[in-house]
Design a protein that fits this description.
Elements (H helix, E strand, L loop, with lengths): L5 E11 L5 E11 L3 E5 L6 H6 L9 E6 L2 E2 L5 H4 L3 E4 L12 H9 L6 H14 L15 H13 L5 E5 L7 H16 L3 E5 L3 H7 L2 E6 L2 E7 H4 L3 H6 L6 H11 L11 H19 L5
Parallel strand pairs: 3-8, 3-9, 6-7, 7-8
Antiparallel strand pairs: 1-2, 1-4, 4-5, 9-10
Helix pairs in contact: 3-4, 3-5
Amino acid sequence: MSQNYPLIVVHDVDYKYLNGTVALRKINLKIYKGELVGIMGKNGAGKTTLIRTFNGLIRPTNGNVYINGENIKSKTTGTLSQKVGIIFQNPQHQVFSNTVEEEIKYSLKSLNLSKQETQTKTDEILKKFDLDKYRERSPLNLSGGETKKLAVASIFCRDPDILVFDEPTLGQDAKEIRFFIELIKNEMNNGKTIIIITHNIEFAMEYIPRTILMADGKIIADGPTKKLITNEFLVKKSALILPQISQFTTALNEIGIPCPNNTYSKEKMTEFLADYIKNKSNVVGGGNT
């Protein structure tokens, strides 16, 4: 993973909605090129407001946002959308064309491609996302998972350097989650910077190296995911729930099974329990197997 320079810099950013609600308070943040970063916290913590400042959908009340070294204050949302692609939690808010094919073509308009280039790119994207069979179907007639996939495809077709996902695993089945995981792995290999808002603790633990915790419009912690979301104080302050594996570790220790705190993965836990049972059996059996 390349972390040679900050691709996103947020400096002293505040944001207050017209109704007086303060959503962001003195946010300072750097996200580096090629990073995979999670943002976590309870509803209303400021997560979605923060990502909306990255592509100009929301303009800070105070402070500045820099993308690739440029202050985005004077940049249009259309220009920024070519650099920062945001896939929102509700895909219905992002798709509005009459057909799936038209949705992709509309998203490609800002790239000023020829008619043939647009068609070729559209065909490639529909095939990549397994949406070709739905090309003539209205987005309104897709399932929730398919609609989310179309929303992702409509952003990916523009090939932005920064991809931002708001609750991408919410309401998705195991197959769709696996597809998403492979998708972000491929994009990471292509040097993309990926930001994921999620409440899915287990997903974050397994796949996201760095996490930003937010509460009441502030960043309360920023660091290695496994360290942050197994910290009971930070988890409580963020109104999250400890990962199941951490809860299980605590329960084992409470009943007298000394389980190390670094047993964060299912594989490590399985290995620990297998060794514990084997050693216990050897003690009971006098060392005979």
